[in-house]
TrEMBL record:
InterPro entries: Calcineurin-like_PHP, Cwf19-like, Cwf19-like_C_dom-1, Cwf19-like_C_dom-2, HIT-like_sf, Metallo-depent_PP-like. One of its GO terms (cellular component) is post-mRNA release spliceosomal complex. Residues 5-56 form the Calcineurin-like phosphoesterase domain. Residues 264-300 have a biased composition (Polar residues). It comes from Phallusia mammillata. The gene is Cwf19l1. Belongs to the CWF19 family. The lineage of its organism: Eukaryota, Metazoa, Chordata, Tunicata, Ascidiacea. Residues 452-540 form the Cwf19-like protein C-terminal domain. Residues 317-424 form the Cwf19-like C-terminal domain. This is CWF19-like protein 1.
């Protein structure tokens, strides 16, 4: 069976070769495997430091850790790094290849990557060697025979320039300037060749648009969606995302039903109106006024983020869905961002509203996944890293930590993390949970004991529970685990009630979270306090420092 390719894409390198390659080497040392690196935007920088760094790679003194493919120059100043004839690609040094002015790169596995280098040529004056015209884009569409009814699209499109009006109908970027930026030629190219992923840079920000359709509903047969992702410059001071990792199965190896899956947040195409230099694309008037959390701020607070095996997997199963009305989707309207304490690539940590203790926190996926049973593997791994970091932080403070998850009457996964006094005995905790389960009554007050089972420590919930199955799961400090498979009424405060018992936290008055709520100012102060407490162990805050 064919395996998906695992790719990395980065934004403007701007001559920071050691920064990007060191970061990738760290990922590889941790067991991550990638097939290639694609670079969009400005690869070269103008300074002396940049030129000296490049010389080390050009001479062979240093070797990029992955086969690296770059686009051409975006300014006259960068032309000196490229040969006079840029139409055909060539190897700049070992493991770094310039793809060429425009064309289609097909890997041995059948992955098709279309590319267009440079910036759009101005309407007046002679064409500059670092610019492209509509004719260059048409060369790509002609080579793909896009007018043929059999043409489906390409897997990836890489350009340095954004497509004009790409934000229409979608989530807005963090910069208002980007709502009007971009090239009509690139927009038309994207519309014509229908890439599954389109990457660009040059605007100095990270922006991940919600997917958009490549067909008109009820008027055309369903097609795959396009995901547009713009990346920030490497090593940017605002800590926005510049490195994007994902896995992708070549289109030619996917069945039609899998390929045309439509994520729940899919919008109309922003290029519904003809987008050419003479006919501009539709304006932003129909744009949804919603904030999309931004990933390497990365997607999130102005804190550092670690690229932890961030594979954005094929649409069928791992499409990073978002629900704008969800209280816990970090890009949603309702999420209370003042409670957020740490943001990673795929998960985040936030203070619990009405927490049992001031440092009672939640570990949540950024995308809209109802439970840990539905998480993609990469998100599972990052959630695990957060849990390990929390355990270390509380341990250093002389306490232990218990986790529980309730997949019942909730549609966004929340793993509760509550610190316990250092002298808390795990057997005592287990007894309280079993005692509470045994004494459970139904809505009519009749005895209805809950079947609580102790699991082997290494059990994978996905192997014993089907997706969508309601459950309650506890992880104790000694690694013990308890599971209840919910089949009927289940008390929402079950986990809190057990922990509030006199033998554990002795907080009988704090079972209901609503009675523990504080003011927004107090919540904000608590979040700041927790960030300071957790900072030393927050793995998202150290990756950029190391590279």
């Amino acid at each position: 069976m064919d395996s998906p390719l695992k790719l990395l894409v980065c934004g403007d390198v701007q001559g920071k070769f050691n920064v990007i390659f060191s970061r990738i080497e760290k990922l590889l040392k941790k067991g991550n495997k990638f097939d290639m690196l694609l670079c969009v935007g400005d690869f070269f920088g103008d300074g002396v430091v940049s030129k000296n760094a490049w010389q080390e790679y050009k001479s062979g003194a240093k070797l990029p850790p992955l086969p690296t493919y770059i686009l051409g120059p975006n300014s006259i100043q960068q032309l000196s790094h490229f040969e006079e004839n840029q139409d055909a690609g060539f190897e700049l040094c070992e493991n770094i290849t310039f793809l060429g002015k425009k064309g289609l790169f097909t890997t041995s596995t059948g992955l098709r990557i279309a590319y267009l280098s440079g910036c759009e040529s101005p309407d007046v004056g002679p064409k500059q060697p670092h610019c492209f015209t509509a004719g260059d884009a048409q060369t790509i569409t002609a080579s793909l025979d896009t007018s043929n009814a059999e043409f489906k699209g390409v897997d990836i499109l890489i350009t340095s320039v954004w497509p004009k009006n790409v934000t229409s109908y979608g989530n807005p970027p963090i910069s208002d300037n980007c709502k009007s930026c971009g090239s009509p030629i690139v927009a038309q190219l994207c519309k014509d060749i229908r890439p599954r992923y389109h990457f660009a840079a040059l605007e100095g920000i990270h922006y991940e648009r919600v997917p958009f359709r490549n067909h008109t509903v009820l008027a055309e047969n369903a097609r795959h969606v396009t995901r547009f992702i713009a990346l920030a410059p490497v090593g940017n001071t605002s800590k926005q995302k510049y490195l994007y990792a994902f896995s992708i199965m070549p289109m030619v190896k996917m069945n039609a039903a899998e390929l045309i899956q439509q994520p729940p947040d899919t919008t109309e195409s922003p290029f519904k109106v003809q987008t050419s230099k003479t006919t501009p694309a539709n304006s932003n008037n129909g744009e949804i006024n919603q904030y999309r959390w931004n990933m390497d701020q990365p997607q999130g607070n102005n804190r550092k983020r670690k690229s932890n095996n961030n594979f954005n997997n094929p649409p069928r199963k791992q499409s990073r869905p978002q629900d704008w009305s969800c209280w816990f989707c970090l890009g949603g309207e309702k999420v209370e961002k003042h409670l957020v304490a740490s943001v990673g690539e795929l998960c985040y940590v936030a203070l619990a509203k009405g927490g049992l203790t001031w440092d009672h926190v939640l570990v949540l996926p950024i995308a809209h996944h109802p439970s840990s049973l539905d998480l993609p593997d990469d998100t599972v791994e990052e959630a695990k890293k957060y849990k390990q970091a929390l355990v270390k932080a509380f341990k250093e403070d002389g306490r232990s930590c218990i986790f529980f998850e309730r997949c019942y009457r909730t549609d966004h996964m929340q793993i509760q993390a509550i610190p316990l006094p250092k002298d808390t005995d795990c057997e005592t905790v287990k007894k309280e949970f079993f005692k509470l389960a045994e004494s459970h009554t139904d809505r009519q007050g009749k005895p209805a004991p809950l079947e609580l089972t102790e699991l082997p420590k290494q059990t994978d919930l996905k192997q014993i529970l089907p997706a969508g199955c309601p459950f309650f799961h506890v992880e104790l400090p000694d690694g013990s685990r308890l599971l209840h498979r919910i089949q009927r009424y289940f008390p929402l405060q079950f986990g809190r009630e057990a922990l509030c018992s006199s033998s554990i936290l002795n907080m009988r008055d704090r079972v209901d979270w609503r009675s523990c709520m504080t003011s927004r100012d107090q919540e904000t102060d608590a979040a700041k306090r927790f960030r300071s407490f957790f900072e030393k162990h927050d793995f998202t805050a150290d990756d950029e420092d190391d590279v």
